[in-house]
């Protein structure tokens, strides 16, 4: 588990952006990047700066990382 902020721009080479609303982004992991919460490869990443979020539950396990000003939801 890492305490550093997850910077999507540092990992842009391995991620594919599917949606960007300005306050939320949905990324696909194309290169087996490790989830900062469990250190296993994740499938998708939701980044949200919104205070309130609602989404359909993923079909599998997910991890949540809270950072200052945003949350990150990693699906596996």
Largest sheet: 5 strands, antiparallel
Envelope shape: globular
H/I helix tally: 0
Q: Describe the strand arrangement of the main beta sheet, using strand numbers.
A: 1-2-3-5-4
Gyration radius from CA atoms, angstroms = 11 Å
Q: Number of DSSP strands?
A: 5
Instruction: List low-pLDDT spans.
Output: none
Alpha-beta classification = mainly beta
- Note the gap between the termini: 16 Å
User: Helix content range of the residues, please?
Assistant: under 10%
Hey, roughly how much beta strand do the residues contain?
35-45%
For the residues shown, what is the average pLDDT?
91
Describe the structure in brief.
The protein is 0% helix and 38% strand.
Descriptive terms for the model:
mainly beta, five-stranded antiparallel beta sheet, single chain
Could you walk me through the main structural features you see in this protein, from its secondary elements to its overall organization?
Helix content is 0%, strand content 38%. The chain contains no helices and five strands. The protein has a five-stranded antiparallel β-sheet with strand order 1-2-3-5-4, with no helix packed on it.
Topology:
Blueprint: E1 15-20, E2 24-29, E3 44-48, E4 62-67, E5 70-75
Antiparallel strand pairs: 1-2, 2-3, 3-5, 4-5
């Amino acid at each position: 588990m890492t305490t550093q902020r997850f910077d999507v721009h540092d990992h842009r080479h391995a991620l594919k952006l599917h949606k960007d609303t300005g306050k939320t982004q949905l990324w696909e992991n194309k290169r087996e990047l490790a989830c900062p919460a469990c250190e296993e490869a994740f499938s998708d990443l939701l980044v949200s700066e919104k205070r309130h979020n609602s989404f359909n539950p993923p079909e599998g396990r997910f991890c949540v990382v809270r950072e200052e000003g945003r949350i990150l939801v990693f699906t596996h």
